[in-house]
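Usage

Read records sequentially. Each one opens with the input sequence:
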Amino acid sequence: MAGPGFHARACAGAALLSAGLHLQMAGQHAGLTAAGMLLMALMCLPCVLPLWRFGSVGAARMMMGGALAMVAVHAVLLLAAGGEESGHQHGGLPAVAGAADGAGAQSTFTMLALVGWELTAAMLAATWLRRMDASGRRLGCSSPPIASRQRG
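and closes with the structure output:
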């Protein structure tokens, strides 16, 4: 039996890198922010082994959903930080760490880099799921693979 292939293992590597990045950021913060980073790192780990060993479709879906959720969270934090830096705040949302002490530009760059990485991880998972669908492997849905559908 063949292994899951390079694409599934690239997804596993992306999930592992995301966990590592969150662990590194947890070490740079304190309190609830550090706890949140540790929680996010733990959320990344369940996808790694199933994707690496088996090419798990469920893990790929979870990875894609988690990565897109992180994009949304980081986007909210970026928007909140933009309001804080300009002296205008909406809804009392917390600013990006470091925005108040003059490190706002670096923090904003870091947050944008995270958004880019999470989009890359989501795209890896989505393209792998699409390849599995096109190859005829069952993905748990009742519709036939797209490659076998007739054009109407």
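Summary fields computed downstream for this record:
- Confidence is low (pLDDT under 50) at residues 85-102, 141-146.
- Residues 104-134 form the longest helix (31 residues).
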